[in-house]
Amino acid sequence: MSGEVLSQNEIDALLSALSTGEMDADELKKAEQEKKVKVYDFKRALRFSKDQIRSLTRMHDNFARILTTFFSAQLRTFVQISVASTDQVPYEEFIRSIPNMTVLNVFEVPPLDGHVLMEVNPNIAYAVLDRLLGGRGESVNHVEGLTEIETKIMSNVFERAFENYREAWVNLVEIDPLMTNFEVNPQFLQMVSPNETVVVISLDTTIGETTGMINICIPHVVLEPIIPQLSVHYWMQNPDRKERKPEEVENLQNRIQKAEVSVVSELGGATITIEDFLALANGDVIELEKSIDEPLIVKVGDVPKFIAQPGKMNKKMAVQILDDFKGGDEEYE
Questions:
Q1: Angle between helices 148-162 and 122-132 (to 10 degrees)
Q2: What is the mean pLDDT of residues 106-112?
Q3: How confident is the model at residue 238 (pLDDT cuts 50, 70, 90)?
Q4: Are strands 115-120 and 210-219 parallel, antiparallel or unpaired?
Q5: 30: pLDDT confidence band, cut at 50, 70 and 90?
Q6: What is the span of the domain harbouring residue 26?
Q7: Is 23 a residue whose pLDDT tops 80?
Q8: Is residue 256 part of a domain?
Q9: Burial of residue 107, with CB atoms counted within 10 A of its CB: 0-12 exposed, 13-18 middle, 19 or more buried
Q10: CATH of the domain at 274
């Protein structure tokens, strides 16, 4: 029977039909068995369990965070990368789903066999290129006309980005990513047979004001040797998995507490022309954009953390912390 909830009247009618012989119980069981038959498409074989897909998603959540940090440092702009979806599809279907012209980075991941593909949407690839060349991170999709210099810059930055992949896999297997090919036309790239099952992890990517996708394509042949290790039971039962000892955790906390960080209080800023800057002389006054009554922003390690007011303590300049820094365009009274 279906998963629908029957009303009391429908239940009474069904029991009445069975008792009067209008409905045969054997026929009802036969119909129930027939409904359990499902159509299975062998061209779209599901070779990974939901548990294994969840494990791959968690691994790439970590990779997305690492990539966010890497690109933020390289591009000096706002970067946000997160896992949008994880699917298993035939390789042919994946190739059809990506643009005709895109940025394809092929990597070996020894000791695992096969190749892993990182497909970068042209919008994202050109935003990265524009920032690296000193631009604002604007995207212009002309992948089919990449120059040798653009190709070299792109391949270098994505090769260095993918080196962080080993860190995402460190608890599963130690891999050594190595870039083997850079391509822009998916039709020229045949990593596996068209019907081979691949796992596609789509990363939702934002660089500045440009958005797009980065897709990680992992063929089944790459994951086959470590499929049992993708199970949650493996992590729960494996006695060899590394765990930090209590004394190691305490030692790490002590070291972090003793780490030195810079604390900077900004009095304000100003914008002047190059001409005015070159004409500055002793005794000139620069008017700051912040009023004397406004609170100061205190940065810890270049990160805004507190708001404060200026003053003196023991005949030395000092600041008094007023509140935590909330960020955004919030105004402080």
A1: 100
A2: 91
A3: low
A4: antiparallel
A5: low
A6: 8-38
A7: no
A8: no
A9: buried
A10: 2.30.330.10
